[in-house]
Amino acid sequence: MVLTWWPVAIAGLICAAVAIVLALLLPMEQVRRQLRRMANTSRLTRLPEYARLARARLFSMLMAVALIGLLLGASVLASARPSGWWWSSAPPDPPDDIMLCVGEPVTEPVTGDFLTYFAGQARTYGTQRIGLTSPNRRVIPMTRDYQYVAARLGDLAKLSRDRADDAVATAASFTPAVNYVDYASSVEDVLALCMTGFPSFESTSSHRRSLIYLGSGQLRGADETRPSLLTADQISAMASKAGIQINALSTSSRNAGVLPSVAKSSGGQYFSLDGRQDQLTGDLDAIRGKSPAATAPVEESTTSWFGDAPAVPLGVAVVASMLLCLSLMVLRR
Prior knowledge:
The chain has helices at 6-25, 29-32, 41-45, 48-79, 109-122, 146-158, 165-174, 187-195, 232-242, 259-265, 280-288, 311-332; strands at residues 96-102, 129-134, 137-143, 208-215, 244-250, 270-272. It is of the alpha/beta class. The protein has two domains: 6-87 and 309-332, no CATH class; 96-300, Rossmann fold (3-Layer(aba) Sandwich).
């Protein structure tokens, strides 16, 4: 079991210890009172009715103490935000880092379908991290804030259907026009920008890293003479060094460019959506079904985050409270 807020658990144990010490040391009102002496009490205490009553009182006291202790322990445990239990402490599958790399205009219907798919997927994630990169912007840094990711991807997906003025402005901010005198971007440069979105991308990781590119394999015009930065071989070397699997979805089979070779060299998959854009969901399912392996050694792998799991201690606290109330009702009768 992993506790997110250890100080809360420690403070709860200290309070319980202080309460026990005070209960043992402070004199009770019944002890301070001077009770009237009675004759022949030994005969009274030997009566079966008295013995039965004394046993019932002792049992009820022990039961109340046990239930109060159980209630206190469960409350403290739930307040400390438990995030894993002994049955989930076995080495889990390494978590996924997924970088969505969109080279296609955000106003295209295929881009809307692509973002809608992952907006729905983000709501089901538990240990994954996901990010989004456009040709020249880190739109969503790698994060586990699934609600934000789902909402942001959903808003961006609507741009493929909305033609209002504010939607046009948002679409322009997704990939602002940037012109250089001595440089023109290429698909290799876009892939490199997407790869740098993985935390500590220069080295291997205990996380499985997947990059999913959507767009054309040729971003430069046929008459473009300005140089780009990187080549396909350099991209393959970067992906191999960082343990990144590159998957590509090309919108045109005629302009696939280096996408098939880069995807194959990194252990990823390549799909052409030319004339089969309705198969996008199936292609994405195939890509997600073949996640890469973690490249860091097992002993260097970090502990996975299971998410808050307060259901067990809260359930125990509720049951203990109900039993405590029932026991008090029985005693009053």
